[in-house]
Design a protein that fits this description.
- It is a single chain.
- With 734 residues, the chain is of the alpha/beta class.
- The strands form 8 sheets. Strands 11-16-15-14-12-13 form a 6-stranded mixed β-sheet, with helices on both faces. The chain has a 5-stranded parallel β-sheet with strand order 4-3-2-1-10. Strands 18-28-27-21-22 form a 5-stranded mixed β-sheet.
- Helix 1 (5-18) crosses helix 14, helix 6 runs parallel beside helix 7 and helix 6 packs antiparallel against helix 16 (350-363).
- The structure holds beta-D-glucopyranose.
- Beta-D-glucopyranose binds at residues 55, 85, 129, 182, 261-262, 489.
Length: 734
């Protein structure tokens, strides 16, 4: 049943009118499906006061059991919202979000998250903590893999597409789930790329760079938000009135609810912001944070705060309302239970694997292809596939495969074997790769007896074995990169080099003089400087999901022409991070005669630029034109360009439009992406691509004026295949 807004309000008011304060606070509480030692088990808590939500549970039967307790035994019988991190797929896994952003095609995340929602909902999950829309300009930050990369324009497109994917036009549908834009806000800019560390961002950067994907999520109707863990300008995001009250609700008109990140309300005490649990509860409520994710700070502190007159019942009700409204809108009062037979039918739909394969194919980025080594011939008789992630299901499924997920992906080795049934495909793992310091997540997954580390002698022997196997083959596919624990939460790194002894392995294999293709499986840009110089063909596959190996083989052997583009630049060194294309000019620009290098021990120029990616064909950009050389503030003009496929095969190109405001109230970045389109072209075909530039693209939040402004100035425009595009025009705003 679909409720109108007044009907939802009426139902919520009826519920509120019969709820005790304890129950209201219960709705502001999200119970952990497994406990970190705080508080009683879920049954007891639900019976006592109900619960807003439960997370970290992935068990359809258990959902129904707990729901039954909520409906039949909790005081007002209010159903529970079951929540889980369905980040890039539930059972069918899609490319990690950074990879999906590399498609530069919003249809990819939209279609992928539509399937993810269908599967997760069939399992009984109502709400996902996705999309993560944090801008990440520091590749050392482990969570860069969960977002859309460094750029607010691309990030906004991907954020909105994911919300549409999960929620559709109507989140009340039986195959839809609530989306959650996270982590509000600034999390990706932590000091030194170190996860959880404080963030210092001036308001102009917040508004021009870090907020836009969140705003895009709100505009796309995103039902919920998650506050970040860290301090933003010395105020924890979960107690931050500026973020949650002023920006999110007053300015953007958000009507949904905000959940804290895990334990983050309680963590305000640990962070040295709140005096004690009660003070943390007060700060969370005052900041407008609705749902306490499993720190039980609200259930411990709020009632006493009301008794003491520090909070009013109305303030609590204000935060309860959107949570109840979501439950009403989702139809949980009519259909609280999930059909336990549905899941296996839904997750085994063949079209889900097809969407996964298609997404993976569209997400991969060809970084190098000297002398057109790729595509490879399928007539090859003997191929060696080498590397520690070549046959790893967990590495290709990637980040967030937690809570009982059994990896079922096609590895790169398996994909190549599928593609070449008549060839001999040999394999060597090479030396193992492991984090120097494991994370809590890794420890939880590996249990008490993790595999012992390889000794240095064992690793040397593994390299020798791999070289021997490579030496017997006609060509070698090296699959190197990172394990799934090497990116994601609590997975930041100081270096961006290939972990472990992979580069040594690569060099030893390359020394054989055979044709070598490098496939990267990883969750962040890597400093593959040696490979970029010496290995003729490099494909960035990222973490491609369930159909990883088949997608890689389709590209390597020419059944699919790659068309992905980088959503982040690749720094040459970890110490060059943060590195991004949209920097400001300086008094000593890189193009100037008397250029003073930023570092004397190596220029911080990216190895691969933002927006870069090759194809098996070539493209030419011509006839860049601007519809008007002048326009007034508030008007819109059209930029058009012709793109021609100048090669022999069909392929995709992504024309990208960048602008630069030449002067003005504030200094603006030397380039900013303001338009892109992924297009397909047959050999010899030309398409004219048009972009609009108007107030939306030309307005910015000025640090000088402390408001949104549009300057009357001259702009540069470039359109081309990446952020170094040279085809140039100008226009003036008068
Ligand atoms: C992460 C969030 C996640 C939450 C719930 C936290 O540790 O930062 O991204 O949604 O856990 O699993």
């Amino acid at each position: 049943m679909k409720y109108s807004k007044p009907e939802v309000e009426k139902k919520v008011n009826e519920l509120i009118s019969k709820m005790s304060l304890a129950e209201k606070v219960g709705q502001l509480n999200q119970i952990g499906g497994f406990s970190f030692g705080q508080g009683p088990g879920p049954e007891e808590q639900i019976r006592e006061r109900g619960a807003g939500s439960i997370l970290w549970l992935n068990d359809t039967k258990r959902f129904n059991e707990l729901q039954k307790i909520a409906i039949e035994e909790s005081p007002s019988g209010i159903p529970i919202l079951f929540a889980l991190d369905v980040i890039h797929g539930y059972r069918t896994i899609f490319p990690a979000p950074l990879a999906m952003a590399s498609s530069w095609d919003p249809d990819v995340p939209e279609k992928a998250q539509t399937v993810a929602a269908r599967e997760a909902r069939a399992a009984g999950i109502h709400w996902t903590f996705t999309p993560m829309v944090d801008i990440a300009r520091d590749a050392r930050w482990g969570r860069i893999v969960e977002g859309a990369g460094e750029d607010p324009y691309l990030g906004s497109a991907m954020a909105a597409a994911q919300v549409r994917g999960f929620q559709g036009d109507d989140v009340t549908g039986p195959e839809r789930m609530l989306a959650c834009a996270k982590h509000f806000a600034g999390y990706g800019a932590s000091d030194g790329g170190r996860d959880y560390d404080p963030v210092y961002l001036p308001e102009n950067l917040l508004r021009n760079v870090y907020f836009p994907p969140f705003k895009a999520a709100v505009d796309a109707g995103c039902a919920t938000f998650m506050s970040a863990y860290m301090d933003l300008n010395d105020v924890p995001a979960s107690g931050n009135q500026f973020l949650m009250r002023q920006v999110l609700r007053e300015e953007w008109g958000f009507e949904g609810f905000v959940v804290s990140d895990a334990h983050a309300v309680g963590s305000m005490v640990t962070q040295g912001h709140a005096r004690d649990t009660k003070d943390a509860a007060l700060r969370g409520i005052k900041a407008g944070l609705n749902l306490d994710m499993s720190s039980y700070t609200y259930t411990k502190g709020v009632e006493e705060l009301v008794d003491e007159g520090k909070l009013t019942v109305e303030e609590i009700e204000e935060l309860v309302r959107p949570i109840l409204a979501a439950k009403v809108k989702m139809g949980l009062f009519e259909t609280p239970y999930v059909d336990e037979d549905l899941l296996e039918q839904v997750v085994n739909r063949p079209d889900h694997r097809e969407v996964s394969l298609w997404s993976a194919q569209r997400s991969m980025v060809l970084l190098k292809n000297e002398k057109n080594l790729l595509p490879l011939s399928k007539d090859v008789k003997k191929v060696a596939v080498i590397g520690p992630v070549a046959d790893s299901k967990t590495a290709v499924e990637g980040t967030w495969m937690v809570f009982g997920h059994e990896p079922a992906a096609v590895t790169v080795l398996e994909g190549i074997r599928n593609k070449l049934p008549d060839a001999e495909v040999t394999y060597a793992e090479g030396p193992e790769i492991k984090r120097d310091i494991p994370s809590w997540f890794q420890a939880r997954r590996e249990g008490d007896n993790p595999k012992p580390r390889q000794t240095s002698e064992e690793a040397t022997a593994a390299i020798q074995e791999a070289v021997k196997i490579a030496g017997d083959a006609e060509l070698v596919v090296m699959v190197l990169g990172e394990t799934h624990f090497m990116s994601g939460e609590a997975a930041s790194r100081a270096s961006l080099d290939l972990p472990g002894r992979q580069e040594e392995l690569l060099q030893a294999v390359a020394a054989l003089g055979k044709p070598v293709v490098l496939v990267l499986v990883n969750g962040r840009p890597l400093s593959i400087n040696w490979a970029a110089e010496h290995i003729p063909a490099i494909l960035e596959a990222w973490q491609p999901g369930s159909e990883a190996g088949n997608a890689v083989a389709d590209i390597l052997f020419g059944d699919v022409n790659p068309g992905g583009k980088l959503p982040v630049c690749f720094p040459q060194k970890g110490s060059h991070a943060p590195l991004y294309y949209a920097r400001n000019l300086t008094h000593s620009p890189e193009s100037s005669e008397r250029y003073n290098p930023r570092y004397w021990d190596g220029l911080p120029v990216p190895l691969y630029a933002f927006g870069f990616g090759l194809s098996y064909t070539t493209f030419e950009f011509t006839n860049l034109s601007v519809s008007d050389s002048q326009m007034k503030v508030g008007e819109t003009l059209t930029v058009s360009v012709d793109v021609t496929n100048t090669g022999d095969v069909a392929g995709d190109e992504v024309p990208q439009l960048y602008i630069h405001q030449k002067w003005g109230t504030d200094t603006r970045p030397m380039r900013e992406l303001k338009g892109f389109q992924r297009i397909s072209l047959e050999p010899g075909e030309t398409k004219t691509v048009e972009f609009e530039l108007g107030p939306k693209e030309l307005t910015y939040w000025s640090a000088n004026v402390h408001d949104w402004i549009q300057d009357t100035v001259t702009f540069d425009v470039w359109v081309g295949a990446d952020s170094t595009a040279s085809l140039h025009a100008e226009f003036e705003v008068i």
